[in-house]
Write a structure and sequence with these properties.
The chain is of the alpha+beta class and 197 residues long. Helix content is 25%, strand content 34%. The protein has a single domain (14-195), classed as Nuclear Transport Factor 2, Chain: A, CATH 3.10.450.50.
Protein backbone atom coordinates (compact mmCIF):
# COMPACT_ATOMS: atom_id res chain seq x y z
CA UNK A 1 0.00 0.00 0.00
CA UNK A 2 2.96 2.32 0.37
CA UNK A 3 5.69 3.13 -2.15
CA UNK A 4 9.07 1.53 -1.81
CA UNK A 5 11.74 4.14 -1.28
CA UNK A 6 15.47 3.87 -1.62
CA UNK A 7 17.41 4.90 1.40
CA UNK A 8 21.04 4.94 2.38
CA UNK A 9 22.55 4.71 5.78
CA UNK A 10 19.49 3.04 7.32
CA UNK A 11 20.20 2.71 11.03
CA UNK A 12 17.05 0.73 11.86
CA UNK A 13 18.01 -2.57 13.54
CA UNK A 14 17.82 -5.44 11.07
CA UNK A 15 15.50 -7.48 13.31
CA UNK A 16 13.00 -4.59 13.30
CA UNK A 17 13.23 -4.05 9.54
CA UNK A 18 12.35 -7.70 8.98
CA UNK A 19 9.15 -7.52 11.03
CA UNK A 20 5.95 -6.78 9.09
CA UNK A 21 4.41 -3.42 9.99
CA UNK A 22 1.38 -5.09 11.57
CA UNK A 23 3.61 -7.08 13.93
CA UNK A 24 5.47 -3.96 15.05
CA UNK A 25 2.18 -2.16 15.64
CA UNK A 26 0.72 -5.09 17.57
CA UNK A 27 3.79 -5.41 19.79
CA UNK A 28 3.76 -1.68 20.51
CA UNK A 29 0.05 -1.75 21.31
CA UNK A 30 0.48 -4.51 23.88
CA UNK A 31 3.28 -2.55 25.57
CA UNK A 32 1.27 0.68 25.57
CA UNK A 33 -1.85 -0.97 26.99
CA UNK A 34 0.14 -2.66 29.75
CA UNK A 35 2.05 0.50 30.62
CA UNK A 36 -1.08 2.65 30.62
CA UNK A 37 -2.88 0.25 32.90
CA UNK A 38 0.02 0.29 35.37
CA UNK A 39 0.55 4.08 35.35
CA UNK A 40 -3.08 5.16 35.72
CA UNK A 41 -3.82 4.82 39.47
CA UNK A 42 -7.19 6.57 39.17
CA UNK A 43 -8.49 3.92 36.79
CA UNK A 44 -11.32 1.92 38.38
CA UNK A 45 -10.24 -1.50 39.56
CA UNK A 46 -12.16 -4.32 37.91
CA UNK A 47 -13.92 -7.08 39.79
CA UNK A 48 -11.77 -10.21 39.33
CA UNK A 49 -14.85 -12.20 38.34
CA UNK A 50 -15.59 -9.70 35.53
CA UNK A 51 -12.25 -10.03 33.77
CA UNK A 52 -11.21 -13.66 34.24
CA UNK A 53 -12.59 -14.81 30.86
CA UNK A 54 -13.81 -13.46 27.54
CA UNK A 55 -17.32 -14.58 28.44
CA UNK A 56 -17.32 -12.88 31.83
CA UNK A 57 -16.03 -9.53 30.58
CA UNK A 58 -18.50 -9.38 27.69
CA UNK A 59 -21.46 -10.18 29.96
CA UNK A 60 -20.20 -7.70 32.56
CA UNK A 61 -20.11 -4.94 29.93
CA UNK A 62 -23.80 -5.45 29.19
CA UNK A 63 -24.75 -5.56 32.87
CA UNK A 64 -22.78 -2.41 33.70
CA UNK A 65 -24.12 -0.31 30.84
CA UNK A 66 -27.76 -1.23 31.50
CA UNK A 67 -29.75 0.58 34.16
CA UNK A 68 -32.11 -2.33 34.71
CA UNK A 69 -35.78 -1.69 35.53
CA UNK A 70 -35.10 0.09 38.83
CA UNK A 71 -31.35 0.63 39.05
CA UNK A 72 -28.72 2.74 37.36
CA UNK A 73 -25.68 2.25 35.18
CA UNK A 74 -22.50 1.19 36.93
CA UNK A 75 -20.15 3.47 35.02
CA UNK A 76 -17.11 2.68 37.17
CA UNK A 77 -17.60 -1.02 36.57
CA UNK A 78 -18.04 -0.39 32.85
CA UNK A 79 -14.87 1.71 32.61
CA UNK A 80 -12.86 -0.87 34.57
CA UNK A 81 -13.38 -3.40 31.77
CA UNK A 82 -11.59 -1.20 29.23
CA UNK A 83 -7.91 -0.46 28.84
CA UNK A 84 -6.89 3.18 29.21
CA UNK A 85 -6.82 4.59 25.69
CA UNK A 86 -9.49 2.20 24.42
CA UNK A 87 -11.64 3.54 21.60
CA UNK A 88 -15.36 3.11 21.01
CA UNK A 89 -16.65 3.56 17.48
CA UNK A 90 -20.27 4.12 16.50
CA UNK A 91 -20.64 2.88 12.92
CA UNK A 92 -23.77 4.57 11.65
CA UNK A 93 -25.43 6.37 8.76
CA UNK A 94 -25.96 10.09 8.43
CA UNK A 95 -28.17 11.41 5.67
CA UNK A 96 -28.07 8.01 4.00
CA UNK A 97 -24.27 7.84 3.93
CA UNK A 98 -21.96 5.58 6.00
CA UNK A 99 -20.39 7.42 8.92
CA UNK A 100 -18.33 6.70 12.02
CA UNK A 101 -18.09 8.50 15.34
CA UNK A 102 -15.04 7.74 17.49
CA UNK A 103 -14.85 8.25 21.26
CA UNK A 104 -12.32 7.43 23.94
CA UNK A 105 -13.66 5.37 26.81
CA UNK A 106 -13.41 8.47 29.02
CA UNK A 107 -15.56 10.56 26.66
CA UNK A 108 -18.03 7.72 26.28
CA UNK A 109 -18.41 7.49 30.06
CA UNK A 110 -18.89 11.25 30.24
CA UNK A 111 -21.66 11.05 27.63
CA UNK A 112 -23.40 8.21 29.47
CA UNK A 113 -23.29 10.12 32.75
CA UNK A 114 -25.39 12.89 31.17
CA UNK A 115 -28.30 10.58 30.28
CA UNK A 116 -31.39 10.72 32.52
CA UNK A 117 -30.70 8.73 35.68
CA UNK A 118 -34.23 7.34 35.81
CA UNK A 119 -34.38 6.03 32.24
CA UNK A 120 -34.79 2.22 32.46
CA UNK A 121 -32.47 1.01 29.70
CA UNK A 122 -31.88 -2.71 29.20
CA UNK A 123 -29.24 -4.18 26.90
CA UNK A 124 -28.34 -7.85 26.61
CA UNK A 125 -26.49 -10.24 24.35
CA UNK A 126 -28.58 -12.68 22.31
CA UNK A 127 -25.92 -14.34 20.12
CA UNK A 128 -22.13 -14.45 19.86
CA UNK A 129 -19.25 -15.50 17.66
CA UNK A 130 -15.76 -15.60 19.17
CA UNK A 131 -12.30 -15.98 17.66
CA UNK A 132 -9.20 -16.35 19.86
CA UNK A 133 -5.49 -16.69 19.22
CA UNK A 134 -3.15 -16.64 22.19
CA UNK A 135 -3.85 -13.48 24.18
CA UNK A 136 -6.00 -11.92 21.45
CA UNK A 137 -9.76 -12.33 21.17
CA UNK A 138 -12.38 -10.94 18.83
CA UNK A 139 -16.06 -11.10 19.75
CA UNK A 140 -18.97 -10.47 17.37
CA UNK A 141 -21.83 -9.92 19.82
CA UNK A 142 -25.44 -9.53 18.68
CA UNK A 143 -27.51 -7.59 21.19
CA UNK A 144 -30.96 -6.24 21.83
CA UNK A 145 -31.64 -3.01 23.66
CA UNK A 146 -34.51 -0.78 24.60
CA UNK A 147 -36.64 0.45 27.47
CA UNK A 148 -36.95 -2.22 30.13
CA UNK A 149 -40.33 -3.94 30.08
CA UNK A 150 -41.42 -2.35 26.78
CA UNK A 151 -40.91 -4.87 23.94
CA UNK A 152 -42.07 -2.39 21.30
CA UNK A 153 -38.96 -0.29 21.96
CA UNK A 154 -36.56 -3.19 21.37
CA UNK A 155 -33.84 -2.66 18.75
CA UNK A 156 -30.99 -4.87 17.62
CA UNK A 157 -27.33 -4.34 16.82
CA UNK A 158 -23.89 -5.90 16.70
CA UNK A 159 -20.92 -5.06 18.93
CA UNK A 160 -17.47 -5.91 17.55
CA UNK A 161 -15.21 -6.24 20.60
CA UNK A 162 -11.41 -6.62 20.59
CA UNK A 163 -9.82 -7.95 23.78
CA UNK A 164 -6.34 -8.78 25.06
CA UNK A 165 -5.08 -10.90 27.97
CA UNK A 166 -2.18 -9.43 29.97
CA UNK A 167 -1.40 -12.55 31.97
CA UNK A 168 -3.76 -11.74 34.83
CA UNK A 169 -6.94 -10.38 33.25
CA UNK A 170 -8.77 -9.54 30.01
CA UNK A 171 -9.04 -5.96 28.75
CA UNK A 172 -11.35 -4.51 26.10
CA UNK A 173 -9.02 -2.47 23.91
CA UNK A 174 -11.56 -1.42 21.28
CA UNK A 175 -15.19 -1.86 20.40
CA UNK A 176 -17.34 -0.75 17.50
CA UNK A 177 -21.03 -1.21 16.95
CA UNK A 178 -23.71 -0.87 14.32
CA UNK A 179 -27.40 -0.85 15.10
CA UNK A 180 -30.04 -2.27 12.82
CA UNK A 181 -31.84 0.20 10.57
CA UNK A 182 -34.99 -0.09 8.44
CA UNK A 183 -32.83 -0.38 5.34
CA UNK A 184 -30.26 -2.75 6.88
CA UNK A 185 -31.75 -5.62 8.83
CA UNK A 186 -29.39 -7.92 10.73
CA UNK A 187 -28.45 -11.02 8.70
CA UNK A 188 -30.10 -14.16 10.07
CA UNK A 189 -26.72 -15.82 10.60
CA UNK A 190 -25.97 -13.32 13.38
CA UNK A 191 -29.24 -13.96 15.21
CA UNK A 192 -29.89 -16.77 17.72
CA UNK A 193 -30.12 -20.18 16.07
CA UNK A 194 -33.82 -20.52 16.84
CA UNK A 195 -34.37 -17.52 14.56
CA UNK A 196 -32.95 -19.40 11.59
CA UNK A 197 -35.45 -20.96 9.16
Amino acid sequence: MSERRRSTGNTTPRCTRLLPGAMIFAAALVLVVGAAAQTTPQWPKARPSDVRSVNSIVLASYKAISTGPHGKRDLQRFQSLFAPGAQLVDVTDQNGKPSTYVLTIQKFIAALSKLPANRPDCEREIARRTWTYGNLAQVWSTNEFGVCGKPKTTQYGINDITLTWDGTRWWIVATSWKNETPSQALPRKYLPRKAHP
